[in-house]
Amino acid sequence: MESDSISSQKALGAFLRAHRERITPEMLGLPTATRRRTSGLRREELAQISGISATWYTWIEQGREVSISPYTLARIATALRLGHAERHYLFTLAHITDPEKEQPQETVNAAVLQSVHQMTVPCYLLDLTWNMMAWNPQAEELFCDWLKQAKTPNLLHFMFFHPQAKVLVSDWEDRARRVVAEFRAETSHHQGKEEIRAFVRNMTHNSEAFNHWWQQQDVMAREGGERTFSHPQQGEQHFQQVTFYPAEHSGLKLVMLMPLH
């Protein structure tokens, strides 16, 4: 673990240096001297813009073990004129949550919606708090009347509040435990958001089972694998779950259930 930390610090320093050397004083409206040893921005100049000491910034670039606040790193990212992907990479290297991280888009573009409805297997789109943003007729049939009746269908609400869940989802207790651990993992970078805190408060207050597993602090990555449903009309059905993350919607995930024959 210690070597991984050192490696991340070195990678962070190398990334900062490479991008600092691409920025010229002119790009930031700074005065330029007639003679400069480097064509890019000096460490002292970037440190001044970012509101930290030159020594402190030098230590960061050298890969030393120093603490960086999210807002300081955000100022550095802005000064370096990092794009969205570059900024995300910077904060990932630093193991820090970006304070200016974009909110997940609440609207879904037409291409993503079309892809959901064109699927021939049960397919649905979840947002950050697992609201069902879109689904196809096959998913509606699988979940029986729930998707037709719910005004704002939410997968966690279904698992813990709907009486049909324990009948439809085979081995409900194990699946429910896992989805709580998956939800904790997926929202780990958004725990400061009031939307997430309010959602968790509601779930822990109203579901004894959710509260029990939430307090266990288990974390699991969303995995594929077999999912079994005991459908009241169609009998037992077996699927392989596959999850995709649309590139333009960081807060959404597309879940497909591939039938196993």
Summary tags:
261 residues; Helix-turn-helix domain-containing protein; Lambda_DNA-bd_dom_sf; 5-stranded antiparallel β-sheet; alpha+beta; 12% strand; Cro/C1-type_HTH; elongated
Give a written overview of the molecule:
This protein is an alpha+beta fold and 261 residues long. The chain has helices at residues 2-20, 43-50, 54-61, 70-79, 84-94, 110-118, 137-142, 146-149, 155-161, 165-168, 172-186, 194-206, 208-215, and strands at residues 123-126, 132-135, 225-231, 235-244, 253-259. A five-stranded antiparallel beta sheet has the order 2-1-5-4-3. α2 crosses α4. The chain is elongated, with a radius of gyration of 24 Å. The model has no long low-confidence stretch (mean pLDDT 84). It comes from Serratia silvae. InterPro entries: Cro/C1-type_HTH, Lambda_DNA-bd_dom_sf, MLTR_LBD. Residues 15-87 form the HTH cro/C1-type domain. Pfam families: HTH_31, MLTR_LBD.
